[in-house]
Recover the amino acids of this structure.
């Protein structure tokens, strides 16, 4: 949208649904983003903020006047505030809490006791529940009230409030009024503990065949539910986090973050990588005398490092996915290492020969071919080794392998590559 | 599971559900995988195969005797065969088709006319449909039959079979028998065209608030539905494809593929990267004389290449995500380029100074600091430029930027980095 044509902007804005508006705002540069934001009807602003990614949303939050918040918060519920809380200054979180009723405030406090990687943080209280003794009649009464989206069943709880049984709505429909719901309960359902990892629990919901799974506390008391739409959002966020982490970024990263902020957030990653690059350089520096005498080694250095890096990142990617999916376990680690070392050995030999021949011909010196071939083989095998062990070790240390795995791996393959290549060169070529 | 203890294996196997079995098989080395496979009850084998990832499944398919297939196919439907078809030899696809009834065969043929990136390939025919004139009574009759999972509404079609309206089941429940369903239809629903991209359509389902969206052909005729569980599977596959593509792999890649097969599939990617590495080496070779005189340049080369590569991959990752989410459009491309160039310029200046100082001190030569500083600045800016333009260009050419983006980017940053660094070195240091 062009600036100045405010009426046109308003029309475009009014026609879009919440998710489209959130996407539109994310894809606009700062100035235009604020213009469109101003033309959104006040009663829609909160839901649009909730639907946006963290960093892009913060720009809008910062530009909103103190007095406007009261109006925006008039209708806020616990789930919305949980989604926004990280982007809001503490003062605004407090005023949102004051605007809520007692129950929503309690929901917010309960959820805040869980980390945002636990399902207790994201559960919904909008759930159809009846006592274990309820009949079809009770269910029908419940269904005549407003039923939340993605509801395909009623949860039955015992007197202690513990989850007991599940009944499908479609089994209730058409059944005689006096039949106890328990008699219609045919299926087993997976129960999610509130402290469970939110990606694992969400994947479970997606595969369960139910539109929502019950979430319980340690004593099996029903706290709420995780529905499949929320689960899908959480899974998508998990994948986005992995994709962004591979480049040292956050999944909240804003396409149009202010230049200074964006530069600062990326500088950290560049700095970490710089340290590893200097480390590699330092190792190369050990062979200055060799490089001076055999310049071909300097020319070919990138080939050795690159082949190790690529081979290692293939293994690394496969293992990181395996860890995330639960394919990689204590029981198959050793077999996996053997397999990856075999693949690395085979590819190492093949490419050592190819590269050795090319280098021999290029520099008219068969010995250079032998040196680079050996270095390639050693580096590809080392890469396979590192590609398996680094993510497994990081995972054990509770560090996200998607984030730090590739830096560590590249450091290993660079150093092994340069030292093997230049070391063998010093030994055999001088 | 240890070999030899077949009874124990059978017990473990019988206790697991389909998805768990599929995961277990994927995470086992070849030999053990075949042992577990043999102990799975015959009537469960087909559904387990369907739930597995492509490559891991092929091992099992190859080991299954010709005569066993008849039993496995006795109950196969179109959706299962569509999922398996790519892993099956043509002869087996034909014999599965012969085992189906006429309708399922037709479903399979219809779906096969769409590419597997189109929603027409994946739609389900298991859908509650009634004519536009139907009453609550008709709906209740329909609901007493078996209702597919993730069904929260009935689709109403007109006489031409075109999709017309949607009614929520919860609005039908409790309504008087003679009320026309149209009168209960309150909501708009998004309609998906069969030729639409399957990731886009699946994301739409996840956000729709419905458990399934109607899928129609060009003339709006209702073909079936896309439910949220299938949509989530498709979205998860999309993300996995992106993650694996960044290392030149397939999302079907098997953790325990046979060594030869695995080595072969990865060799292609190593080969492509080798070509780009040799290209970079060739450019370095142009400066052999310089390298011989100033060995410090050889020592510092990896720093220049690495900083460019990292900065570029950050921009690239952000743009690839933006393209996938629809954040990057024709309208904001220019603004995005300006912003990324600004971020690159700012980080370029900062790191040029830092690296310049370190290099000056290390080699006791301020001129080396100036040379590497300039090269770093040029390379980080070039990286930002390439990071924006490469994925956008690939996307226009319908090439997956997640797969080839990073190779092309690294080629650019390597060559720009080496040429700038060694070129400036030749000019100023000799």
């Amino acid at each position: 949208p062009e600036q100045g044509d405010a009426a046109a902007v308003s029309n475009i804005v009014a026609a879009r649904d919440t998710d489209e508006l959130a996407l539109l705002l994310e894809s606009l540069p700062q100035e235009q983003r604020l213009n469109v934001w101003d033309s959104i009807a006040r009663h829609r602003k909160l839901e649009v903020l909730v639907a946006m990614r963290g960093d892009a949303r913060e720009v809008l939050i910062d530009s909103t006047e103190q007095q406007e918040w009261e109006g925006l918060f008039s209708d806020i519920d616990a789930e919305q505030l949980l989604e926004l809380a990280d982007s809001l200054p503490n003062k605004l979180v407090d005023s949102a809490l004051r605007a809520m009723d007692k129950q929503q405030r309690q929901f917010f406090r309960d959820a805040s006791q869980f980390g945002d990687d636990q399902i207790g943080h994201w559960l919904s209280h909008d759930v159809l529940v009846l006592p274990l003794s309820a009949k079809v009649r009770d269910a029908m009464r419940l269904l005549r009230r407003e039923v939340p989206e993605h509801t395909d069943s009623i949860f039955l709880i015992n007197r202690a409030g513990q989850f007991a049984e599940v009944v499908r709505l479609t089994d209730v429909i058409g059944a005689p009024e006096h039949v106890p719901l328990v008699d219609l309960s045919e299926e087993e359902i997976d129960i999610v503990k509130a402290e469970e990892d939110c990606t694992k629990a969400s994947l479970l919901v997606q595969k369960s065949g139910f539109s929502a799974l019950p979430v319980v506390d340690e004593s099996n008391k029903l706290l709420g539910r995780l529905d499949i739409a929320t689960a899908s959002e959480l899974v998508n966020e998990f994948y986005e986090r992995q994709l962004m982490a591979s480049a040292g970024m956050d999944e909240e990263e804003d396409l149009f973050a202010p230049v200074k902020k964006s530069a600062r957030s990326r500088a950290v990653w560049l700095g970490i990588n710089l340290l590893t690059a200097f480390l590699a350089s330092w190792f190369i520096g050990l062979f200055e005398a060799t490089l001076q005498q055999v310049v071909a080694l300097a020319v070919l250095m990138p080939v050795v490092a690159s082949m190790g890096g690529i081979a290692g990142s293939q293994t690394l990617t496969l293992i990181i996915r395996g860890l995330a999916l639960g394919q990689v376990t204590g029981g198959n680690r050793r077999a996996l290492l053997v397999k990856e070392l075999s693949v690395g050995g085979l590819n190492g030999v093949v490419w050592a020969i190819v590269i050795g021949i090319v280098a021999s011909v290029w520099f008219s010196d068969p010995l250079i071919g032998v040196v680079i071939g050996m270095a390639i083989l050693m580096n590809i095998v080392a890469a396979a080794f590192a590609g398996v062990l680094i993510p497994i070790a990081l995972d054990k240390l509770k560090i996200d392998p998607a984030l730090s795995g590739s830096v560590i791996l590249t450091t290993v393959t660079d150093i092994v590559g340069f030292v093997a290549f230049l070391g063998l060169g010093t030994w055999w070529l001088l």
Notes: The mean pLDDT of chain A is 92. Residues 295-325 of chain A form the longest helix (31 residues). Chain A has three domains: 6-116, 129-245, 261-429. The radius of gyration of chain A is 29 Å.
